[in-house]
Amino acid sequence: MVEDEVVVIGVFAAGERRRAAIDLAGFLGSDAVVPDGPVGPALRSLWPRLGAAVVFLGTEATTRLVAPLLRDERADPGVVCVDNGFAVALLGNTEALARRVAEVVGATPVVTTPTPTSVLAELAELLDATVEGDAEACDAAIRAGEPVVLRDSIGFPLPALPENVTADVHEGAWTVLVGDRVTAAGEHTVRLVPRTLVVGIGSRADVRADAVSAALSRLESERRLDLRAVRAFATLDRKTAERGIADAVEDWGFWHDSTTAPLLAYPAEELAVIPVPNPAELNIGTQSVAEASALRGAAQLSAGGRVEIAAAKIKGDGVTVAAARVLPRGRLAVIGLGPGGADERTPRAEAELRRAAVVVGPAECVEQVRHLLRPGTRVVDGDPVALAEAGAAVAFVGTGAGPVVKGSVRADVVRVPGAESTVNTR
How far apart are CA 6 and CA 369, in angstroms? Predict the structure, then answer.
């Protein structure tokens, strides 16, 4: 029986290998233990208290056992597996341990240099953002525990981040800026540019592509919008046949290494009912094309979220452009744990737990997934809907019905496929 104190090294084996595990534990010192029972349940039970684990199984079997337990490279125990005459440093900084194990059991050590997790790469993937700056050096500073300033100018629902990455300090070794505006970036600054903008385009007949491109450039030079943040373009439906508009949009994709910004089109009667800051007498069934189509496109992509004008219209040579911003909302992931074990939990559920900054649910359900949470994730006893509507990234875990919402939810609500918990949004 293992007590609740922190265990430095757990040695796991079954059957005839158990004798070798007990002998190894004797050589590794008084902090090494060999728990009773099958390897899988024993490993899962001890995992939160382990500093390192030595598993007498092959690399594939060991990987399958530990994969659902991994939380964060800064918190996970190191893992060495022993099999077929090899001691493999499988996870974490375990080169020395693998060599010691190999020496004791008469095996050949196998060590590799692990690729460290990139906090910025995970954020960029989550936000669908372009990264500017020396992200590798900034990640190294984060792993070293140096203070890093985070500036999230738009208010994205970010996951829990390392405690040294915070908006609460004014100076740090590095600064991480999240936003869609062009800003002066110093040597120790990394920018994450999410795709938040819809650019509306209006034009006269036979407008030139270079005139459209010049107007787009002015959104960056005059209105300080980063054109890498463009998520879509929009215009009047009859303008999609304008070669100049189509060519300018294609040129934008070439220069920004992207082919995923569509040209959305709307009829005049849809644009006519959209309030805009700068209406005009156009005599085409609507008082605005650039601003109205930008707002209409942003509303379509926001799935009911808030939008705003990011740049009022700019007039060029036979063309007018404007930009609207899709504003981020809080996020509520409703995750049903179901009756199965941890090995039956879907990858989607685990991904949503890692995405959350706040977790809510019955204590017994939270304990089942605590090892999957990022360090710094807050576990609270509160209203998950209210937390999400306040802008947080929230995960609710449970085995029964989830939180019930009356009326519309001012947050993005996602459900893990197959989850028992549900949210009623009607």
Answer: 19
In the DSSP assignment, the letter for residue 225 is: B
Closest CA to 73 of 91, 55, 87: 91
Phi first, then psi, for residue 334 (nearest 5°) are -100, 115
Strand, coil or helix: what is 398? strand
Residue in the structure block whose two tokens are 């939990």: 345
Residue carrying the six token digits 């947050």:
411
Length in residues, the chain = 426
Give the architecture-level CATH label for domain 119-194.
3-Layer(aba) Sandwich (3.40)
Q: What is the pLDDT of residue 2?
A: 41
Q: Quickly list H helices, 168-289.
A: 209-221, 243-255, 268-272
Task: Annotate 56-100 with DSSP letters as a single string.
Answer: SS-HHHHHHHHGGG---TTTSPEEEEEETTEEEEEESS-HHHHHH
Nearest by Cα to 246 from 197, 206, 300 = 206
Check for a shared fold between 119-194 and 331-415: no
CATH no. of 7-110:
3.40.50.11220
Sign of the CA dihedral 371, 376, 381, 385? negative
Write out pLDDT tens, residues 154-181.
Answer: 999 999 998 899 988 778 889 999 999 9
Rounded Cα–Cα distance for residues 68 and 369 (Å): 10
Domain ranges of the chain: 7-110, 119-194, 197-326, 331-415
pTM reported for the whole predicted model = 0.73
Angle between the N-to-C axes of helices 39-46 and 59-66, in degrees from 0 to 180, rounded to the nearest 10: 50
